[in-house]
Amino acid sequence: MPTQEHEALVHLFRNSPNLAPKLMRDTLGVELPAHSDVKIACADLTEVQPTEYRADLVLSLSNGEPAYGLIVEVQLSMDARKRFVWPAYVASLRARWRCPVCLLVVCADSAVARWAAKPIQLGCKNLFAPKILGPDVVPEILDAVDAEMDPELAVLSAMAHGHDADVAKAARIAALAQGVSSGLDDDRSKLYLDLVINSVSEAVRKELAKTMLPFKYEYQSDFAKHYVAEGLTQGRVALITRLLAARFGSLSDAVRGKIAASTIEELDAIGDRLLTAASLQEALAPKS
């Protein structure tokens, strides 16, 4: 299941189709062909194979006809399977559009970025090497004008550098991202404000709180609320399951299923009852 961080990064690149080509050209030094527009294309890269290939985002740099294909993949952990399907993504889109295609892998972790950057052996001495955008190479947006010109890049910068040792600098990057996000349309504004505050360290949050943030941040976007609520529920399920097993012994699949389907309120009630319940059944269900 895609995580909040994965989906958030995909949202940034989808909301600003020019962001990926800009980073490819200006940050990674890739020479791109002249083009008049950048469009989001279908991310389904399946041909006649029974296996479905679906990328996170596919962009078409075109002059009426595709001149360059750019596949954006967000990779948050090391996954050996991806090193087999990534070349297929590129080969499939290249055959479909009959133009050069490049894969850009976006990594939030430096170690994952180093893993993803290793050339992939295809056989017969053929190598496949995607372009990697790790946190170390994401530009630091420290100027208000730069942030205003490219809000998505400002938010990406805050996400990449939110845990930097230089707290003052990280806080400035985050503050600029928050400032420019507050002037966007309602959906993007709420989402980006949540992304920034969720991506920075506690030290940076405290620095921001001195000037512009309340002590207790309340998530604004439905997107973030969904993942935060989902994370809280999953954590509560795991805790209650462990406590019940410790108190009453091994739990059946039916009991585990009942716990997993419970709401946070129901899980809290089970947690209160198991302190005094004489049996598992009494802990799971209130007395009538």
Q: What would your notes on this structure say?
A:
With 288 residues, the chain is of the alpha/beta class. The strands form 2 sheets. Strands 1-2-3-4-7 form a 5-stranded mixed sheet, with helices on both faces. A two-stranded antiparallel ribbon has the order 5-6. α7 runs antiparallel to α8. About 2% of the residues have low confidence.
Mean pLDDT: 84
Number of helices: 13
β-strand percent reads 5-15%
- Identify the strand order in the major beta sheet: 1-2-3-4-7
The outline comes out as globular
pLDDT < 50 runs, ≥5 residues = 213-217
Main sheet makeup: 5 strands, mixed
Level of helix content? 40-55%
Question: How many DSSP-defined strands?
Answer: 7
Gyration radius, in Å: 23 Å
Order of helices and strands: HHEEEHEHEEEHHHHHHHHH
Structural class per helix/strand content? alpha/beta
Distance between the termini: 39 Å
Topology, element by element:
Layout (H helix, E strand, L loop, with lengths): L3 H12 L3 H8 L10 E5 L15 E7 L1 E10 L7 H16 L3 E6 L3 H7 L3 E4 L2 E3 L2 E3 L10 H6 L1 H11 L5 H15 L4 H14 L2 H8 L12 H27 L4 H8 L3 H10 L6 H5 L4
Parallel strand pairs: 3-4, 4-7
Antiparallel strand pairs: 1-2, 2-3, 5-6
Helix pairs in contact: 1-6, 6-7, 6-8, 7-8, 7-9, 10-12
